[in-house]
Amino acid sequence: xxxxxxxxxxxxxxxxxxxxxxxxxxxxxxxxxxxxxxxxxxxxxxxxxxxxxxxxxxxxxxxxxxxxxxxxxxxxxxxxxxxxxxxxxxxxxxxxxxxxxxxxxxxxxxxxxxxxxxxxxxxxxxxxxxxxxxxxxxxxxxxxxxxxxxxxxxxxxxxxxxxxxxxxxxxxxxxxxxxxxxxxxxxxxxxxxxxxxxxxxxxxxxxxxxxxxxxxxxxxxxxxxxxxxxxxxxxxxxxxxxxxxxxxxxxxxxxxxxxxxxxxxxxxxxxxxxxxxxxxxxxxxxxxxxxxxxxxxxxxxxxxxxxxxxxxxxxxxxxxxxxxxxxxxxxxxxxxxxxxxxxxxxxxxxxxxxxxxxxxxxxxxxxxxxxxxxx
Length: 375
Description:
Order of helices and strands: HEHHEHEHEHEHEHEHEHHHEEHEEEH
Low-confidence stretches: none
Number of helices: 14
Strand content: 5-15%
CATH topology of the largest domain: Aspartate Aminotransferase, domain 2
Distance between the termini: 45 Å
Largest sheet: 7 strands, mixed
CATH architecture of the largest domain: 3-Layer(aba) Sandwich
CATH superfamily of the largest domain: Type I PLP-dependent aspartate aminotransferase-like (Major domain)
Shape: globular
Number of strands: 13
């Protein structure tokens, strides 16, 4: 008997597979297609010949932990104890999975704000806990009255994603004030903040839970080197949380992966001395603006994109099909793969919206836009 009877193959896997089968341009799954920084690959080339191939400490490579603490202090003015409050994970997804498995018990409730990334649901179900799916407003702002109605004495965890995948929305200062007021009324709820796109924001600054003193002692913050440094296949992320929560998370982590890829951790540790995360937002804003300009003569209506490397678009002027069928036809007839937004909702809410990934080289974006403008 299946432990996850209602969960099938991920929509990202389905669309990427179809893109390969039909030789379509893949703007569906969230990964860059441009070259990794040569300085990073040069570090890996050198390290491959050095003695960095055995297990590292469970929490992570100590110099990397120290540099993560420095990065958080420089970015958010938060002091982190690198030995006890940071855990390097096998990608952000493992960090999220491990956190939920460690902190959520059977019959607990976990609030998930829809549209939501698909990796939140499975670990909640595997805990025999209950996911409470609360939809955002149609403009993707949080509906705090609706969120509060979703809270019960059994609520253990509230998950937020900022900047938001799939919508590219940024949580505002007023929303953080509302969140802090809400959690003050419910002191037993833990906040899980998925911030894997934290260094990719545009007109509005990203506000991190790291910068909110009222939230720090009751939050787990998830980050991703894969997203930040265009190395998604390395599957290296990290989480930061107070020691009392970290002790529980490490209990699960040690039996799930124990420690993360050694050569990658050492390479990232050295690479952090060479780069600035402040370069990321201007880099991706140029990509976003170029992609939007290329699509200005299409029949797609582009939604605001405040962060991440995803662009949501309405196809309502083109077709009345449901978004899954439209995305499949977009691949088979027009050679471009996108992600249907309805798959991020518990009830499959269909607003005729699809998501493109613009973390691609300009040649790819130009060819994709040419095909999309021809529809």
